[in-house]
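Proteins fold. Shown next:

***
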Amino acid sequence: MSQYQQDLENMAKLKASQGTAWNAISPEYAARMKTQNRFTTGLEIAKYTAGIMRTDMAEYDADSSQYTQSLGCWHGFIGQQKMLSVKKHQGTTAKSYLYLSGWMVAALRSEFGPLPDQSMHEKTSVPALIEELYTFLRQADARELGKLFDQLDTNRAQGLDTDDIQAQIDNFETHVVPIIADIDAGFGNEEATYLLAKKMIEAGACCIQIENQVSDAKQCGHQDGKVTVPHEDFLSKINAVRYAFLELGVDDGVIVARTDSLGAGLTQKIPVSSSEGDLAAQYNAFLETTPVNSIDELSNGDTVMKLDGKLVKPVRLPNGLYKFKENTGFDRVVLDCITSLQNGADLLWIETEKPHVGQIGDMVRAIREVTPSAKLVYNNSPSFNWTLSFRQQVFDTWLEEGKDVSAYDRAALMSASYDNAEIALEADEKIRTFQADAAREAGIFHHLITLPTYHTAALSTDNLAKGYFGDEGMLAYVKGVQRQELRQGLACVKHQAMAGSDLGDTHKEYFSGEQALKASGDDNTMNQFDVVD
């Protein structure tokens, strides 16, 4: 028996137990409303989606072609439309998540207005967006199920078979999917991280991504000036997130440990080593130092330490930060990742400066020498110039293979004049297969684009404004937007229904019967879209 059928039976028994007072209540309507609102709390969502992620991770371990994907969404409506589209085109929401980007929260959701990705926005805006996203996804469930219930009623009234419709209701796949949520560097100390993680989990987050930058000096992963913290500091925040999951009963919650060490050349403090070769000693071994042969070589305020049996002075900048040695990023990333996995993290995030399967794969193979099950969440970032990067990668490969590249200027490969050239076509094919290739060869379990809907909103608005305020006038909207919505079957062409008017009408009918004043009558202009093929 399906959950819907079981709810229907239970509602009928409950109504009968109440005598005549509940005569106006329909058990079927009550069961429908319960089915349309499957999740009543964010914690229910977090527990449900954590199970999905754990299953997906196990399936990826068995078969690397089973990777997962997401797009960053900065508003509930964007997340809703994304999942409706995924389900429409793919037939399922399986392996498709949402990503909550701290960058987009800062740029689009702060009361201060647009802010850089430096943890300057209100920390409460992060759980608020998680709750908003799930509110819209739950509304997508209610809307789609509502259409099925309407069809069920129509078939019944016309004496038609209802088995297929009932089966679709009984086996309905929810639009509620996992969210990987960005907590930046924790917005403070480990207690602050714990408190914010709790709010995010209570809002529905089953997966929290945290980075090893200094919280009060946090920078976007694709900008300069990044400062990392010692391993002990980062691990305390991983512990804080795990305790938050356990306290709230999400025992299989997922933690993504992000390292920015590949592009970070600075640290804020020198950890204290208590034994030879411990984490602090390994971290300090990466510091750029100068030997100290005499106390006379020291200036007022200099820091001195014993490293590998020698007295050295770490190189310190005027702002008090310490420098790492050049070309140590790779090794620091590997140590970061191994340490995080050995101390409670479930997945890794390596922030890179370019999308290169070989570079990512080299780091993952080094990590897997110690932790064989290591796998990544990877940022398919809009900060990369994908076109130029992959054309240059093809150019370099051809050059190594001895192929004639004299027709191409490597520095100018972004030029549109190359768009139909062989090098561009091969580069585009590598971009197309990047996710599958990287999942197979570089251990990437989850591919995400952090800021795609930020860019699509800007691009589509620019195209509309260019035509609407130009010679096309109203045709710019009709041809470029509405006609495309109709041709491509976008549900939001009926924006009143998407905003909940049909659901409201149904509820009014439940509550008021024939007295219900409904909006979806003959004079509703949305009906104009019913006749379009």
